[in-house]
Design goal:
The protein is mainly alpha-helical. It contains 7 helices and 2 strands. It has one domain.
């Protein structure tokens, strides 16, 4: 079963309906609750992929000495995945789209907190964008798109390291606020 179909099935099960639209069996409802059972495979798959994706991005930020390192990245990715799973499990009691919207709003405030203005220069914008990406990756994990989440993490690292390589190779790319030698 593909990820979007699996998610739709999980939502229907949480609401008490099977894929055919009839009331879901106890076994089908149990599959939704397995995501929160620490003894189940789906729980650890979600946790493992979130930790992996957060680690991939967080390690890059950590070795550069940025504000959001490995721990922060893992926790953002994992918590977003958990909130999205909780929203999917609350079908019939709430709207998972609202959960996603509230996660986006909360992450926006978290990202705004790392942006600083120092002596006329704004710093931390890339870290804020990385926090957005971590939350988006966590949302993908929460919706069951595990492979896409890993690929998004690798693309994020590619962008971060690739642009730095370009900036170090082509001096004209480091004009203005991107010039490490300029006074802020």
């Amino acid at each position: 079963m593909r990820a979007p179909q699996a998610l739709r099935f999980r939502r229907q099960c949480a609401a008490g309906y099977s894929a055919s639209g009839l009331l879901a069996s106890t076994e089908e409802r149990r599959s939704v609750l397995d995501y929160f059972d620490p003894l189940s495979r789906p729980f650890w798959l979600t946790v493992g992929v979130a930790v992996l994706c957060g680690s991939i991005i967080g390690f890059e930020r950590q070795i550069r000495g940025k504000a959001a390192g490995v721990r922060t990245s893992i926790l953002i990715c994992l918590s977003t995945a958990v909130f999205i799973h909780l929203g999917a499990a609350a079908i019939g009691q709430g709207d998972p789209n609202r959960v996603l919207g509230q996660v986006v709003t909360g992450v926006g405030f978290l990202g705004a907190g790392v942006i600083l203005a120092r002596e006329g220069a704004v710093i931390g914008v890339t870290t804020a964008a990385v926090i957005w990406m971590l939350a988006a990756t966590g949302a993908a994990i929460g919706l069951g798109h595990y492979l896409a989440a890993v690929v998004l993490s690798l693309i994020t690292i590619g962008v971060l390291t690739g642009v730095q390589l370009l900036e170090s190779s082509f001096r004209w790319l480091t004009r203005g606020v991107h010039n490490p030698d300029a006074d802020p």
